[in-house]
Design brief:
Shape: elongated
Order of helices and strands: HHHHHHHHHHEEEHEEHEHHHHEHEHEEHH
Distance between the termini: 33 Å
Mean pLDDT: 79
Low-confidence stretches: 1-24, 603-609
Structural class: alpha/beta
Oligomer: single chain
Number of domains: 3
Number of helices: 20
CATH class of the largest domain: Mainly Alpha
Length: about 600
């Protein structure tokens, strides 16, 4: 089943969910994830050690080969050395294959688990977190930043070990070959190390800036794609291109700054490296002319010097890559450690019987942000088991907020809510939300088939799927079978992203079928028919008639016919309950409800909410 697409437009400020303070060395947080694959890494390191040893032996073999050719003129020795080199290179190729395969496959496994854990963490955060973060930014963290970490594990780690071996082994062999030349060769190392430290920090900041700008651009593109109908209906394609292009300008500016730092960094490294080679060539050439050094020894020394210079340059480059990876790791682990503002209780109550749907809100208050006024103030509301309560009021009165507090999408800031007499914060989120079914005004379907969308409500924790009979029964109860069976592929019809291939009434009936399959104790209908045509409304009303039977129901600002079906009407205005009673009684009281009805709720019109 495809993963849900989260909304990215924040309608209100929400309580910020702060990430935990990450470790000053976030890459260390990868170590526990690598530990299960330690045996594979040991084998890879042994192969790397063997490959590096062969590479370090190569200049010595070349030395003997050249001396055999130019000094002893021994063709048979020359042949044996050449054959021996081919044999060693064949072994080295095999070792490199094993090492690359083990490291690459291990990095794939580690990063796949990291991505799964990160997604699992994000998917469990409360909706308040997603009102402050754009979906594109989060998906960028989930893909681009973890890809940086994968490069560290699959390539940078082995390259660091290889170049360290070349550096240490090269220096040792240089010293054994000619100590005087070694001092000349190593004279450039302090300059390279200092340059790496100086530029590495600047490179980390620049790389972080590029990754942040890319995440913003991705978020803008994702927002435009998810709202494509709105964009095209207002003919704002050019504006979206301009917005995306402005983000790309920022990406380019940040990337150019990083390129300048990188270019300067590697330019200095190149000059220092080749400058050292020139110095060694000049001094070595003088030693050959003096007769204190053979041509073969000079060539082997130059090869070792190139090893050392290459190792220093590579390590400096890897230091820059490490700085980039630190920024990526910090962002990933900040998200991985983000704490939800809505948490499961440490020791949730386990009820002996299923929840019946008796709701009580006692003096509830709520605000989305401590700096903003309260949205709800002193709300006390009762819904008896099996009772249908309609919640009406002007736009912005707080109706949808109440519906969001019941399943704990947000937590109350004052008062308490009980479900069958139990404080909802004492129940596990799974048990509480499992007892509540929500039919929103604009239901969002996943991009799979109709059957998958209905079955989504019945998937077990172990991934088990509901039976075909139960899916069909739910569709029948929601009066959805009528249109499903007319489709060419029936229940296997793909609905497109967010259900765009279905009409509003068809999507609504699929959403109701999901609630039927869930079989909750409490149903929340959030303007479920306000945007439908009369024919679609008739089918949806029939489905809701069956859905509401024997269930506690909270209906939010719907059409008049549904209000009349309610056992009780609760009127809320500016976050306070101002009236409560039956439709006819409230209509006769000449209060807020009567004013709303006479001003907006003409027969057949919608109760605007």
């Amino acid at each position: 089943m495809p993963a849900p697409q989260f909304g990215i437009s924040a309608q209100r400020p929400t309580p910020r969910e702060h990430p935990a303070v990450s470790s000053p060395r976030p890459l260390r947080r990868l170590l526990p994830r690598i530990r299960p694959y330690l045996a594979r890494l040991v084998i890879a390191f042994v192969c790397l050690l063997g490959s590096a040893a062969i590479a370090l032996a190569f200049p010595q073999i070349v030395r003997h080969l050249l001396d055999a050719a130019f000094i002893s003129a021994d063709s048979s020795l020359l042949n044996r050395i050449a054959i021996g080199l081919l044999f060693l290179f064949a072994i080295q190729a095999l070792l490199n294959f094993v090492q690359v395969y083990l490291l690459t496959s291990t990095s794939e496994l580690v990063i796949a688990q990291l991505r799964e854990d990160l997604f699992a963490r994000l998917i469990h955060l409360s909706p308040g977190f997603f009102t402050e973060r754009r979906t594109g930014e989060l998906t960028s963290r989930l893909s681009a930043d973890t890809a940086v970490l994968q490069t560290v594990l699959s390539y940078n780690l082995s390259e660091f070990a290889r170049q360290t071996l070349f550096l240490v082994g090269g220096i040792v062999l240089l010293t054994l070959t000619h100590p005087r030349l070694t001092a000349t060769t190593l004279g450039v190392v302090p300059l390279v190390v200092g340059t790496a430290i100086l530029f590495g920090r600047a490179l980390r900041r620049a790389s972080t800036g590029v990754q942040d700008r890319v995440a913003e651009a991705t978020g803008t593109a994702d927002e435009a794609f998810s709202q494509i109908r709105t964009v095209q209906s207002f003919t704002r394609e050019a504006e979206e291109v301009r917005r995306y292009g402005s983000h790309l300008v920022e990406v380019i500016a940040a990337a150019m700054r990083r390129a300048r730092i990188r270019g300067t960094f590697f330019g200095i490294l190149t000059f220092c490296g080749f400058g050292g080679v020139v110095a060694v060539l000049w001094q070595g050439g003088r030693l050959v002319l003096e007769g204190s050094l053979t041509a073969g020894a000079l060539v082997s020394f130059l090869l070792y010097a190139l090893y050392v210079a290459g190792a220093v340059g590579s390590l400096a480059s890897l230091f820059g890559a490490y700085q980039e990876a630190v920024g990526a790791a910090r962002r990933v682990f900040d998200l991985l450690e983000a704490e939800s503002s809505v948490k499961d209780p440490v020791a949730p109550l386990h009820l002996s019987r299923p929840l019946r749907g008796e709701i009580a809100m006692d003096n509830v208050s709520f605000q989305y942000n401590p700096t903003l006024p309260e949205v709800l103030r002193g709300i006390s509301l009762r819904i008896a088991a099996g009772e249908v309560v309609a919640l009406v009021g002007p736009s912005g009165a707080g109706k949808t907020t109440i519906a969001s507090l019941l399943p704990r999408f947000w937590d109350v800031t004052g008062g308490r809510i009980t479900f069958d007499g139990t404080e909802i914060r004492d129940l596990s989120l799974a048990e509480l939300r499992g007892a509540i079914g929500i039919v929103p005004q604009e239901p969002t379907l996943f991009s799979g088939t109709i059957r998958e969308n209905i079955a989504y409500a019945g998937i077990g924790d172990d991934g088990s799927q509901p039976s075909e009979d139960s899916v069909r029964a739910a569709a029948k109860a929601a009066h959805a079978v009528e249109f499903i069976e007319r489709l060419p592929d029936g229940f296997e019809t793909r609905v497109g992203e967010r259900g765009v291939k279905l009409s509003g009434g068809q999507r609504q009936r699929i959403a109701i079928a999901r609630v039927f399959l869930k079989n909750p104790a409490l149903v929340i209908l959030d303007e479920a028919t306000s945007s439908l045509d009369s024919e679609s409304e008739r089918f949806v009303e029939q489905a809701m008639e069956d859905l509401l039977r024997a269930r506690s129901t909270l209906i939010i600002a719907h059409r008049l016919s549904t209000v009349l079906r309610a056992d009780r009407v609760v009127v809320i205005d500016r976050g306070v309950i101002v009236e409560e009673g039956r439709h006819q009684d409230l209509l006769a009281s000449e209060g807020v409800y009567s004013r709303l009805y006479r001003g907006q709720f003409r027969p057949g019109d919608a109760l605007v909410g």
